Amino acid sequence: MFEQTGNWIAFELLHLSPANALGTAVQFFIMDTLKIFFLLVLIIYLMGLLRAFVSTEKVRQLVAQRPKWQARSLAVILGSVTPFCSCSSVPLFIGFVEARIPVGVTFAFLIASPMINEVAVVLLFTILGWQVALLYVLAGITVAYLGSVIIEWFKPDRWVESYVWDIKIRQQQEQAAFKGHFKERHNFAWNEVKVIVTRIWHWIFIGIALGAGFHGYVPEAWVSTYLSGTENWWSVPAAVLVGVPLYSNATGVIPLIEAMLNKGVPIGTSLALMMSIAALSLPELLILRKVIRWPALAIFIAVLVVAFILVGYGFNFLFV
Question: What are the TM regions of this chain, as residue ranges (predicted)?
């Protein structure tokens, strides 16, 4: 439905052509705006509804009673089995933080969720074989687990925005909804949608606009040309940096990765780009900035950039 609507608006109403850069960029902007806001509203509402049915205090106690490694492992597993893109994972991240689950543990979910996608893994299996698909999953799990450990060393709790911690009123509303009927629970969930979307909607538009410009005006041939060849040591870091302005989930970026591999781009460079697009997108960072302050955001970016570069070099070394 969204694809047909986006095509009709971009190519019929605005008289644009998919063959030129402007038409491609506008279509990307419309499609991603519809998709992201739909998913954002849906996920926030469902999370709010879940919190109204399940006491977050009990969830917090359940996690708090477990050793840190078990809680972190559960977060990675939950992230691995949820087919969310990076932007859709942020509302869940906020819900976990508000439930007083340790911030370091929640980062494990935030990293794993967009990077490991069941459909993407199946596509990787069909294109590159089970060995590469399995190694990609293991690499994603390792990055999520160790990355969250490293982030936790810096005590990121101190950089969470104050409004996230200031949840006394929300806790009272949540407890009332938990004890009430479906109408009260619906009202609580819808209020969560209004509060969060009001805070972040303009950042989403900025991130999508930047991603659309890059998507429309930077040709795929340029990416393939300058990122090909294992002798170019800078190709893996460049792939990671190029992936940040682009926005997609792991499944959506598979066709680009396949095209790059067909043009001779090394597998490690291609997968580093895939991880960067899926888990380190600019829209996600702009939304996440409304939850955590710049120092925590900078640490999050640095840890993932280094991790994706190491993964890229590792795959290039293994599959020369």
Answer: 36-54, 74-97, 103-125, 132-154, 200-218, 230-247, 267-287, 294-315
Distances (CA, A) of 291 to 6, 91, 136, 163, 286: 30, 10, 29, 8, 10
Q: What would the mean pLDDT of 265-269 be, rounded to a whole number?
A: 87
**Residue 3: its pLDDT value, please?**
47
DSSP string, 30-49: HHHHHHHHHHHHHHHHHHHH
Q: Which residues, other chains included, contact 13 with Cβ-Cβ below 8 Å and sequence gap of 6+? A: none
Q: What is the distance between the alpha carbons of residues 279 and 295, in angstroms, rounded to a whole number? A: 19
- Helices marked H in 54-181: 56-64, 68-81, 86-98, 103-115, 118-128, 130-153, 162-165, 168-179
Question: Above 90 in pLDDT, residue 144?
Answer: yes
CA angle 94, 113, 164 (to 5 degrees): 5
Distances (CA, A) of 309 to 64, 220, 235, 248: 33, 21, 10, 19
Backbone angles phi, psi at 269, to 5 degrees: -65, -40
Residue 138, pLDDT above cutoff 80: yes
Q: What is the signed CA dihedral for 214, 219, 222, 228, rounded to 10 degrees?
A: 90
For the ranges 126-130, 217-221, 227-231, 289-293, the lowest mean pLDDT is seen at 227-231
